[in-house]
Structures are given as C-alpha cells and as structure tokens.
Write a structure and sequence with these properties.
- The protein has seven helices and eight strands; from the N terminus they run ααβαβαβαβαβββαβ.
- By secondary structure, it is α/β, with parallel strands linked by helices.
- The chain has a single domain, classed as YjeF N-terminal domain (Rossmann fold), CATH 3.40.50.
- The protein has an eight-stranded mixed β-sheet.
- Helix 3 links the parallel strand 1 and strand 2.
- The longest helix is centred in the N-terminal third of the chain and has 19 residues.
- The two termini are about 15 Å apart.
- It is an enzyme of class 5 (isomerase).
- One of its GO terms (molecular function) is NAD(P)HX epimerase activity.
- It holds the Pfam family YjeF_N.
Length: about 230
C-alpha cells in the first residue's frame, strides 16, 4: 500500500494524539529530540562532515527540531552555527539553546556574513502549522536564503510553502533535501529536490494502522529512511 501523505489538519491531530495516553504519552521534548536526531542522521547520509563541515541552522517558529539537530550534528563532528532571530520566551527553547551554548555552538546575528562561512543550510523556520503570508523578520530571511547557492535541507516542510499546495507563490525555499517527519505532508508531493527522507521512528504499529500511514521499514538501527522522489 502507498505511503500516506498528510494534510495540515490531520498532521496536527496526529501530533496532539501522540502526546495522549492512547499513543504512548510522548512529551513534546521527546518528539523534538527524536525528530531532530533523525534529521541530523539523515544529513550524514548525504552531506559528509568532510565536504560540508560548516552547517548553518536557521531557526524560527519550528525551531525545536532544528536546535536538537544542531546539537547532534556537533556530536557527529560537524561545526553547526545557529541563526535564531526571534527566540520565544519559553523554558523548553531556552534549555535547547543553553545546551548549544554549553557546547560552544555559535549563535550568529548576521545572516549574510554567516552564509559566506557555511557549506550547508538547515531550514528549521516554519513547520506544518504555517499558513498565510511570511511575516517579518522571516520574509527577509527567506529571501536571503533563496539567493544563496548553498544546498538547503528543510525540516518537514520547506519554509514558505503551503502545507497542502506546495510553493504556490514561489516565495518559499526550494531545498535540495527534505526530511519529512512522522509521515510526509501533502506538499512533499511537489518537492523536486534530490533527496527525500522520512524521520521520526516512534510511531506505534497500532497507531500507524489506525491512520493507514503505510510507513516504510526503517533499516537496521537507523532513525531515517530514504523515500523515492
């Protein structure tokens, strides 16, 4: 059976249910940790630390997964830096950023300057809850990233895309790699990049059956699996 692609409403419903007793009582911290780890591992499958050591992670409203990804990339031997122009006043995100500071991961303010010192971009700006127009400061951030020639890895949804219709106004990013989480979103059908992975190896079989997700088998101990384009 074909892998199921999720619309925005169903994706949000699944996220809520994963944190309920019926699906295992995951905490949001756990889901972010597992998701971010899977993204970091997927990056290692395509972009080696020898050729792409300097990774710029751009963080926005969907920042938790990106911050976790940065921590794991550091432990994998990469040199991550974080561009985080709008940091929420929430303990969860403060803890994630403090973990990075304790590893001496750079928090940068000048995006244009940092792009000249990077080999790879990770797009952790918007997630599947994004809707409407791109608001400041991320409108300028995305314009700047679009003008870069560096390869981009987007987490779950390329930032600026409609979750179900894709890059309808051509204002969103066009990543070289997409790492879908839990299950691909409908917008992933419009992805034209080279590499598509699925991450988030935490779905109970009964839960996957209930929603007819038809998830692929993860190889060995991997936390990500390559999907056909």
């Amino acid at each position: 059976m074909a892998l199921r692609y999720l619309g925005q409403t169903l994706a949000q419903q699944i996220d809520v249910e994963l944190m309920s007793p019926t699906a295992g009582c995951f905490s949001i911290d756990q889901l972010m940790e597992l998701a971010g780890f899977s993204v970091a591992q997927a990056i290692t499958k395509v972009y080696s630390k020898e050729k792409f050591p300097r990774v710029l992670i751009c963080v926005g409203n969907n920042g938790g997964d990106g911050l976790v990804c940065a921590r794991h990339l550091h432990h994998f031997g990469y040199q991550p830096s974080i561009f985080y122009p709008k940091q929420p006043n929430k303990l969860l995100y403060q803890n994630l950023t403090n973990q990075l500071r304790n590893l001496d991961v750079s928090m940068v303010n000048n995006l244009n300057d940092q792009l000249t010192k990077s080999d790879l971009i990770v797009d952790g700006i918007f997630g599947f809850s994004f809707s409407g127009g791109i608001r400041a400061p991320f409108d300028e951030v995305i314009k700047t990233l679009k003008s870069s020639t560096l390869p981009i890895v987007s987490i779950d949804i390329p930032s600026g895309w409609n979750v179900e219709q894709g890059n309808i106004d051509n204002v969103g990013l066009e990543p070289e790699m997409l790492v879908s989480l839990t299950a691909p979103k409908i917008a992933a059908k419009f992805f034209k990049g080279k590499h598509h992975f699925l991450g988030g190896r935490f779905i109970p079989p009964s839960f996957a059956k209930k929603y007819e997700l038809n998830l692929p088998e993860y190889p060995g101990s991997d936390q990500c699996v390559r999907l056909p384009n």
